[in-house]
Design goal:
The protein is an all-beta fold and 294 residues long. It is 0% helix and 47% strand. It has no helices and 34 strands. The chain has strands at 7-9, 12-13, 16-18, 21-23, 29-31, 35-36, 38-41, 44-46, 52-54, 59-65, 68-70, 85-87, 91-98, 101-103, 116-119, 127-131, 134-136, 150-153, 163-167, 170-174, 178-180, 187-190, 193-197, 210-213, 218-224, 227-231, 236-239, 242-247, 250-252, 257-262, 268-270, 273-275, 279-284, 290-292. It has an 11-stranded parallel beta sheet, with no helix packed on it. Strands 3-7-10-13-16-19-22-25-28-31-34 form an 11-stranded parallel beta sheet, with no helix packed on it. The radius of gyration is 18 Å and the shape is globular. The protein starts with 6 loop residues before the first strand and ends with a strand.
Length: 294
């Protein structure tokens, strides 16, 4: 039974999970209520449907570092893959996701979920750091089932108070490398190297390097010092997300706009280099924007 390969942790403190190997199983590890101060590191997760995920309950401190995920299939019939790293619910303290290699190199003719999914609610003064991960091939030809490589969103219709930092990741050959969705705020996206975003029909964020749509909320978002290239659509796309700061990015050789802003007020666009795109900066239906030093 492939389900029997998983490790489940609940109401426990100080558990370290390291130097294990999962192969052809449904998933590696699942953190439930009260799984506090867990460290998950230097594991190999090979052809599993999912990787490590948390439940929607409150937990305190979690480190997911230096693991190798070859995420796709555990069944003989190809059914695609679920999220390899998924944080749901209300984290307390600090969550660190760093130094992981995530490669979804299964068939593109089947469903694909995210490499890293962050669904953050009221974070109780918490911080989630996603840094120095190498992510590739989060790609499918089924538009309705496509997902971003890294996706961040709020939960239960409420604006997140958790601080989320996504920095210094390398993301290659994905439908949408980095997506910030509804009810997200208080984010820093910096120093990421995004190379290649592939457009498919049925997935509105596909082809964008960094796509942001917080559903009309003040995003309180900083996008800084990223390098974004070879995307089939816009390099950076901000829609219905006010108070975004786009600072010092290198955006080059993308098929559409370098920076695209629509229905987003009070944004700052400063010090960016846009070259080799269809247009440098495109603004529509927005108010009180500042563009300087680009």
């Amino acid at each position: 039974n492939a389900e029997q390969g998983r490790i489940i942790v609940q109401t426990s403190d100080g558990v370290e999970i390291c130097h294990n190997r999962w192969e052809d199983t449904a998933g590696a590890a699942f953190m439930q209520t009260g799984a506090d101060n867990v460290k998950f590191h230097h594991n190999d997760i090979i052809r599993t449907h999912s990787g490590i995920q948390t439940s929607g309950a409150i937990f305190t401190n979690l480190e997911i570092t230096d693991n190798y995920f070859l995420g796709h299939i555990y069944q003989t019939v190809d059914v695609g893959s679920d999220d390899q790293i998924a944080i749901f619910g209300a984290a307390s303290g600090r969550v660190i996701i760093s130094g992981n290699i995530i490669d979804k190199q299964g068939s593109t003719a089947y469903n694909q979920a995210r490499a890293i999914s962050i669904t953050a609610g009221d974070g109780h003064d918490s911080e989630i750091i996603v840094s120095n991960n190498n992510i590739r091939n989060v790609i499918t030809t089924i538009g309705a089932s496509a997902r971003a490589a890294i996706e961040i969103s709020g939960v239960n219709g409420s604006k997140t108070t958790t601080r989320v930092i996504v920095s210094d990741n390398v993301i290659t050959n994905c439908n949408c490398p980095l997506y910030v969705g509804a009810y997200s705020s208080n984010l820093l996206l910096s120093g990421n190297n995004i190379n290649g975003a592939v457009t498919i029909s049925g997935f509105s964020q596909s082809g964008r390097g960094i796509a942001v749509n917080t559903g009309g909320l003040d995003a309180e978002l900083i996008i800084a010092q990223n390098m974004i290239s070879l995307c089939d659509a816009n390099g950076i796309e901000i829609v219905s997300s006010s108070e975004a700061v786009i600072l010092g990015n290198l955006i080059k050789s993308n098929t559409a706009k370098g920076i695209y802003i629509d229905s987003s007020n009070d944004c700052v666009v400063s010090g960016n280099l846009c070259t080799g795109n269809q247009d440098g900066i495109f603004i529509s239906n927005s108010q009180r924007l500042s563009l300087t030093g680009n």
